[in-house]
Amino acid sequence: MYSIRTKGFSLVELMTVVAIVAILAAIAFPSFHSTLQSNRVATTTNELIASMSLARTEAIRSRERGSVCTSADGATCGGDWNSGWLVWSDLDSNGAVNGTETVVRYVQGHQKLTVTGSANLLAFDGRGRIVGGAQSVGVHPDDAATPIRCVLIGPTGQTRTTQAACQ
């Protein structure tokens, strides 16, 4: 007297689980989107700070200028911050990448973010100070939602970040 038991799920049970998962995903996606957006802004801000610190370190190390400029191709300066930026040692202090300088790092622009700066070229002198006075670079999502960060570079070359639009 053995009874036969079937193992597994019925089609109705499976469809119920799929419907519940779909409802939970629809509820969770908007909050997940804002988390992704916030992480994109934070990552790009950190890349900017690292690039500026690298340029400043190169300037102090070589006793010449270290620069960060906007670059679309990773070989020349030009364009805007959205296309990307280039870190290089400006050995002749002319503000241009002309073949004699060493390109240290290139960071491509990021989709879904807007990066704006008060200048397209940030240069640090041999003492690590910013050339031309204090500067700023802002990062925010394309849809201008709340995660906005501003990287401020003071006259001494030190950077700090605020969670507000750049002035």
TrEMBL record:
It holds the Pfam family GspH. Belongs to the GSP H family. GO terms for biological process: protein secretion by the type II secretion system. The chain crosses the membrane at residues 12-32. Keywords: Cell inner membrane, Cell membrane, Membrane, Methylation, Transmembrane, Transmembrane helix. Residues 45-157 form the General secretion pathway GspH domain. The keyword Secreted does not apply. Coiled coil: none annotated. It is a single-pass membrane protein. This is Type II secretion system protein H. It is found in: Cell inner membrane. InterPro entries: N_methyl_site, Pilin-like, T2SS_GspH. GO terms for cellular component: plasma membrane; type II protein secretion system complex.
